[in-house]
Amino acid sequence: MRIWGGVALAALLSACSGGVVPHSVEPGYSPPPRHVPRETPRENPRVSEPHGNPAVRQPIPATPLAAIPAPAAPAGTLTASSAGLLAGPSLDSLPLSDAGAARALTAYRLSCPSLVRRTDASGLTQGRDWQPSCDAAKTWPERDARAFFSRWFETVQVADGKAQATGYYEPEIAGSRHRRSGYEVPVYAKPDDIIEVDLGQFSADMKGKKIRGRVAGKTFIPYYDRKDIDQGALDGRGLEIAWAADPIELFFLQIQGSGRLRGPNGEMMRIGFAGQNGREYVGIGALMRERGLLQPGKASMQGIMEYLRTHPEEGRDIMWENKSYVFFQELKGAGPNGSLGLPVTGQVSAAVDPKFIPLGAPVFLSMDRAEANGLWIAQDTGGAIKGSNRVDTFWGAGDDARAIAGGMNARGTAWLLLPAGTLSRLGGAPIATVPAPTHQR
């Protein structure tokens, strides 16, 4: 599960932090350069910013399919079932590539068992609704994946269908299992003195609310905040599971919730979210924007990092305004894992609000940015991913993924794919026809 439950990189503008030089790094420290993989013939040339920070990938424009005219979800709507539903276009009319359909089928096959077992928080389906397509997916050939989705699913528009798609990725940063010159920024495991209290046990009015803190003497107090930890609050406790080279890169990895540490000899260590200190999360990107620190064209992850690198002391103070701190654990096997406990896959997995899109379900995006178009499988969640038709697309690892996700913020239309017959059972509207464009870049 992604740490802020799938915080989108576009949300970095309201959720990112900065250029801290921790107590363990000497003044004037300069991180080693990031490795840039060799180009493959199909890739566009990369343009790097200072310190090897890949530039935002310029969007490929596209014309979204029109949504069916419908009102937006009423204020206070909590689930898709109460947001208003309409039948969408036939799947055969949608511009879905064979490669995209094959990726989606592979991911859907992985998620199927969870769809059958889980209670659908959206109120749209029951586990047994998914069983026929899950059974069929086991042996359906990827080369005919378009036919699979056409056979077993129907498209449904939730409310007005207006969608926003952002992006996230699995960061790969320079790091080492052991502290050494150039690798001196601690990556901490979760401390054992963090206590989580379920306030619902004390008052029915606080049901579902939890707080984290620590005991000092006989008093329960907030846990150490980011400034405390950067200034040594956890020193000497043996909590370091690794050491990063660059404090800024490590902070952005904290936002993503999982990533890879690449050692000086090429060895790789995968780490994932283990806990959080319970302190308030403040999006310093929004603070920077409000204070006029981000110039036009720099309102992206890459632009923020560039500013933080060139203003390290200011970046440190801004970052300390975000009191939240993330702890990690080493991950083994395939990954990273999404909220279903299953590996997420670049260019097909997405984080969603499960109250509006069932976890494990396919969703079709038709956006004003071509990279985001096609079928995505909901395999993750995100604290910043809330409401109907909100999708955070996952792009995998590496510089290409970083460059695309870092600037992804697309608008357009979303249609949810549900088992055929679902809308009729729910008493939805008759099938509407939405023409597909003859060409879409």
TrEMBL record:
Residues 26-57 are annotated as: Disordered. Residues 172-329 form the Lytic transglycosylase MltA domain. Its EC number is 4.2.2.n1. It comes from the Bacteria. Signal peptide: none annotated. Transmembrane segments: none annotated. One of its GO terms (cellular component) is outer membrane. Residues 36-49 have a biased composition (Basic and acidic residues). It catalyses: Exolytic cleavage of the (1->4)-beta-glycosidic linkage between N-acetylmuramic acid (MurNAc) and N-acetylglucosamine (GlcNAc) residues in peptidoglycan, from either the reducing or the non-reducing ends of the peptidoglycan chains, with concomitant formation of a 1,6-anhydrobond in the MurNAc residue. One of its GO terms (biological process) is peptidoglycan catabolic process. This is peptidoglycan lytic exotransglycosylase.
